[in-house]
């Protein structure tokens, strides 16, 4: 943890407006993106974003620097708030579910070729496939590939264990390939 | 899949990373005034006096109170019938079982009884115990001389004993008024003691006489 983070946490615990503004500047965009990725509309994301930071300011006294960084802790609150919001709203969104187990039949070589071999068409197909993933799987993929979070950090955010996160990532990769094949056919 | 393998795949899955980058780049940016709105919301929440909801606590306290009253056992658990049964008056068996004519042997016993009574009277002279419990019954333990009067006394006493609970106070020897004897009583007791002593001497002389006669006959 950097010295600025320690100062920031101290300021937040003293309810300093300056520290609150600094926190929003530092982590605001990231949190909004995370929330907007999980929720269907921007309006919902704005509402949840506010709830997240209200909760952060209210519970800053319970933050334990030994367990995680401030960024990961805020990310965990954002993830939980978004998932809770989705559960409460009960919006009907259709996602791809591999009930037949077709994705598991794909070989590792097939998956690596689809996701690894540079191809602009495949990139567009992957973007389309990502929209068919359930929000929690999409969030894990984004945290791992885009936000460069470690498996341990993702496990902390999703309240899981690194092994589970790894197996979820593996399944999601195969699922993306399966969706791409379905879209191609 | 192991953690190392997954981390290795992160670098290999370029298409997936590019797709995510493009998605994030196209995502709608955060509204500029969102942080201001958030700060206003935080400020208004801080200004609002925090309401303390008391009514659930009051309700819980009431329920607890009712439960305590309901579950507390009554102070007097034992029924009144039992108490009445326990307080039955004790009926003392009459002291006089046998009606005997006075013998010479009884004289020393009476003397002993008198000595004992005198010793107690010396020990404590202060007024003891309630006077209200004193009854009008005869004070001294009955020394029955005549069978008819003794039986009559027992018959008279029986119905009274059923009703009255005897306590330690009712024992004649513990009554304060019995600690001292009148001069007449003392003179009477001395006279009886002398008579008894004389009778005892006569008896001893008779026994000795008989012994001598028997010894003479044996010889």
What does this protein look like?
The complex is a heterodimer of chains A (185) and B (219). In chain A, 74% of the residues lie in helices and 0% in strands. In chain A, 33% of the residues are buried. The model of chain A has no long low-confidence stretch (mean pLDDT 84). Chain A starts with a helix and ends with a helix. Chain A is mostly helical and 185 residues long. Chain A is elongated. Chain A folds into 2 domains: 3-89, Rna Polymerase Sigma Factor, Chain: A; 102-184, Arc Repressor Mutant, subunit A (Orthogonal Bundle). Chain B has a domain at 106-123 and 141-218. Chain B is mostly helical. Chain B has helices at 3-12, 14-26, 34-47, 55-71, 80-86, 106-123, 147-163, 183-218. Chain B is rod-shaped, with a radius of gyration of 52 Å. In chain B, helix 6 runs antiparallel to helix 8 (183-218). Helices cover 60% and strands 0% of the residues of chain B. Chain B contains 8 helices and no strands. The longest helix of chain B is centred in the last third of the chain and has 36 residues, at 183-218. Chain A binds chain B through residues 15, 17, 20-21, 24-25, 28-29, 32-33, 36-37, 42, 46, 49-50, 53-54, 57, 112, 114-119, 122-124, 126-127, 130, 141-142, 144-146, 151, 162-163, 166-167, 169-170, 173, 176, and chain B through 1-3, 6-7, 9-10, 12-24, 27-31, 34-35, 37-39, 41-42, 45-46.
């Amino acid at each position: 943890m950097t010295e600025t983070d320690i100062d920031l946490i101290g300021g937040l615990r003293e309810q300093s407006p300056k520290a609150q503004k600094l926190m929003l500047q530092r982590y605001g965009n990231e949190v909004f993106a995370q929330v907007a990725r999980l929720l269907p509309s921007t309006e919902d994301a704005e509402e949840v974003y506010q709830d997240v930071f209200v909760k952060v300011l209210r519970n800053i006294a319970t933050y334990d620097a030994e367990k995680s960084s401030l960024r990961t802790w805020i990310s965990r609150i954002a993830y939980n708030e978004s998932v809770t919001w989705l559960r409460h709203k009960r919006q009907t969104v259709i996602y791809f579910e591999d009930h037949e187990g077709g994705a598991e039949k794909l070989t590792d070589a097939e998956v690596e070729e689809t996701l690894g071999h540079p191809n602009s068409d495949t990139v567009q197909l992957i973007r389309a496939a990502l929209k068919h993933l359930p929000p929690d799987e999409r969030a894990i993929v984004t945290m791992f590939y885009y936000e460069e979070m470690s498996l341990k950090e993702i496990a902390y955010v999703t309240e899981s264990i690194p092994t589970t996160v790894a197996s979820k990532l593996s399944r999601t990769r195969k699922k993306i390939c399966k969706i791409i094949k379905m879209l191609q056919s | 899949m192991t953690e190392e393998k997954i981390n290795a795949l992160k670098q290999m899955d370029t298409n997936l990373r590019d797709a995510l980058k493009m998605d994030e780049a196209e995502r709608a940016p955060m509204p500029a005034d969102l942080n201001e709105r958030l700060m206003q919301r935080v400020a208004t929440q801080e200004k609002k006096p925090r309401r303390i909801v008391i009514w659930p606590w009051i309700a819980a306290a009431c329920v607890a109170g009712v439960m305590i009253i309901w579950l507390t056992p009554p102070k007097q658990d034992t029924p009144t019938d039992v108490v009445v049964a326990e307080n039955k008056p004790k009926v003392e068996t009459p002291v006089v079982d046998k009606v005997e004519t006075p013998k010479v042997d009884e004289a020393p016993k009476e003397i002993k009884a008198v000595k004992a009574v005198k010793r107690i009277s010396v020990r404590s002279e202060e007024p003891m115990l309630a006077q209200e419990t004193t009854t009008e019954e005869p004070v001294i333990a009955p020394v029955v001389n005549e069978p008819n009067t003794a039986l009559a006394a027992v018959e008279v006493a029986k119905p009274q004993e059923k009703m009255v609970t005897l306590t330690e106070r009712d024992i004649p020897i513990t009554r304060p008024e019995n600690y001292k004897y009148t001069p007449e009583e003392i003179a009477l007791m001395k006279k009886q003691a002398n008579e008894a002593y004389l009778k005892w001497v006569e008896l001893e002389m008779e026994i000795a006489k008989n012994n001598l006669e028997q010894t003479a006959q044996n010889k």
